[in-house]
Structures are given as structure tokens and as C-alpha cells.
């Protein structure tokens, strides 16, 4: 499959509208995420390895906010536990339609169910591994505690939650340094200053990052025994929380 280049914000927009996971974004998504999220490919591979480590026989593995199913495919190709099912959920119709085709073209063994739903309303049951790879940051802040508590309740003992997020920082100097370095990363990947600045405006009220300590506090409050940051590249990090 040829990868389409993301040029959504390449020309000057007269009216700035909030970022949405619509057809246009879904069409260029692999290019957009690869050029925008430092360490993305390493994270996808790492999540497959962790899913294999924690998947328990006869349980569900969830990919919440699956987009085109990159996490689903990585888990599917790695998990060896018997009789697991991957449940991949996204509320964007454009993403789910394309994910269906991509998952069909992959013939690894683990069965996959794809659902177009709001993850805040999806039941989570009999789970050993739950992944939210850059999804929690798009959920309204006042709904995040309830979502993580629901995931905790749906996990079996020994199960894990993996959450990857863009981070913010309490002190202004650190925050500015990471934002600036991420900007350099995007420029190095061919985005112009105008593209970067227009996308930043579109994301402003849509992607709300939190601090690392806010994430650990939420995992603890939900009941998780322990949480670790297992990956970080610039201001993009991934956590694993243990039930
Ligand atoms: N409430 C919600 N319910 C369901 N889906 C949602 C919700 N809110 C946002 N989404 C979905 O979460 C996804 C976030 S992208 C995930 C990348 C993927 N995990 C990857 O590893 O390639 C991250 C990014 O673009 O930075 C989008 O597909 C949204 O439609
Ligand atoms: O592009 C950015 O600035 C980001 O923070 C990451 C991102 C990647 C893909 C969709 C939305 C946000």
C-alpha cells in the first residue's frame, strides 16, 4: 500500500476548525502519526511485546482508540496465549471502515472484533491487556477518572493497562523545552512552520495533555498497585499500570 502524505495543514486556512478524526485525517493517518509522534514505531513494537507478556488464556485484549489498528496488529502478531480475542474500538467511522480492511488483510491467528463506539460507554470485561495508545488525551478531562476506573474493574488480577500520552510539565521552562524540541522533530520530518502552527491551533481544545504525576495519581486512585513509565521520547511517554 502506498502511504499518502499528510498535507492537511499545508496551505493557509481562512477559518480554523477543531481537529477531527474524519475521512481526510484517516486517509493520511499513518504518515501523520509517524511524522508527528517521536518514537511511534518503537512504541507499537514494544506494545506487542508487552501484550504477549501479559495476555492470559481465554481473556480479552483491548485496543481503545484503535484508529487504523496499528496496536491491534502488533498485539495480534505477538500474543501466544490460547483463545484470546482482541477488541478494537474507535468512535470515528472513517477510522473503523479502514481498520476493517487492514485487519482483514492480515491473517494472523488471534480473532479481532472491531467496534465503532465511544470508549467511555463500552463495556470492558474479562480483560488481561488494555491499551490506550494516545487516546486518553482526547477524552474530556472530567471523564478520564471514570474511564480508568472502568478499565480497572474490567481487568483480571495480573492484568495491565498501557497508556501512551503527550505530556505537559509543571515548570514552565521544562514545558517550553519539550514543546520546542517536538517542534524541531516535526520540522525535521518535513512539516513547515505554517503547518505546525495551524495544526497546533486545531488541536488546542481537543488534545489536552497532563503531567506524568497526574497519570500516576489517576492509576493509583483507580486501584492499580503500581505504574511505571516504560517509554519516553521527547514529550511523548507510555505508562504501564499493574492490577
Ligand atoms: N471517546 C472516544 N471513543 C473512541 N475513540 C476515540 C474517542 N476519543 C478519541 N478516539 C479515537 O482515538 C484515536 C486517537 S489516535 C490513536 C492512535 C492509535 N491508537 C495508534 O496507535 O495508531 C492518536 C492521535 O492521533 O494522536 C482516534 O482514532 C480517535 O477517533
Ligand atoms: O501533531 C502533534 O502535534 C501531536 O501532538 C500528535 C498528533 C498526532 C496525530 C494526530 C493528532 C495529534
Overview of the molecule:
The chain has a domain at 40-168 and 206-242: Rossmann fold, CATH 3.40.50. The protein is built from eight helices and seven strands, in the order ααβαβαββαβαααββ. Helix 5 (141-154) links the parallel strand 4 and strand 5. With 243 residues, the chain is an alpha/beta fold. It has a seven-stranded mixed β-sheet with strand order 3-2-1-4-5-7-6, sandwiched between helices. It is 42% helix and 21% strand. The mean pLDDT is 97. It has helices at 23-36, 40-54, 70-78, 93-104, 141-154, 172-188, 193-203, 212-222, and strands spanning 60-64, 85-90, 112-116, 127-133, 155-166, 226-233, 236-242. Helix 2 crosses helix 3 and helix 5 (141-154) crosses helix 8. The protein is globular. It starts with 22 loop residues before the first helix and ends with a strand. The structure holds ligand GEK and 3-phenylpyruvic acid (PPY). 3-phenylpyruvic acid binds at residues 32-33, 36-37, 166, 199, 203, 207.
Major sheet size, sense and barrel closure: 7 strands, mixed
Instruction: Write out the distinct hetero groups bound to the structure.
Output: the ligand Nc1ncnc2c1ncn2[C@@H]1O[C@H](C[S@+](CC[C@H]([NH3+])C(=O)[O-])CC(=O)[O-])[C@@H](O)[C@H]1O, 3-phenylpyruvic acid
Strand order of the largest sheet: 3-2-1-4-5-7-6
Q: What's the helix-strand series? A: HHEHEHEEHEHHHEE
**Helical percentage:** 40-55%
**Superfamily (CATH H level) name of one domain:** Vaccinia Virus protein VP39
The 3D shape can be described as globular
Low-confidence stretches: none
**CATH C-level of one domain:** Alpha Beta
- CA distance, first residue to last residue: 39 Å
Hey, roughly how much beta strand do the residues contain? Answer: 15-25%
Extended strand count: 7
Kindly provide the radius of gyration, computed on alpha-carbon positions and rounded to a whole number of angstroms. 18 Å
Please report the number of helical segments: 8
What is the CATH topology classification name of one domain?
A: Rossmann fold
The structural class is: alpha/beta
Please state the average pLDDT score. 97
